[in-house]
Write a structure and sequence with these properties.
By secondary structure, the chain is α+β, with helices and mostly antiparallel strands. It contains 3 helices and 6 strands.
Amino acid sequence: MDVELLYFTGCPNWQLAKERLSEALTTVGNSAPEITLRAVETDEEARALRVPGSPTIRVNGNDLFPAAAETDCLACRVYPTPDGLSGAPTVDQLIQALSNTS
């Protein structure tokens, strides 16, 4: 499984997303989760990589939470969670999304 976390340096949520993603990967059976961190530092890079905001989590090249609108720029991304909008998906949401990629 190729797991990638795309983010921009000033993003306040990418580290939280990484922690939750590591926990979710371990829960679904990946005992040594390897997450490729990919810094995206310009709007041009974001457009070229089709990054709808930071943090973006991809598995095998596919966004785990496809964005409804194409923004592709250096912006903070928000995720709907059971507790309202958040800068990162919950561990449970990640587990469910990862389980659906199998």
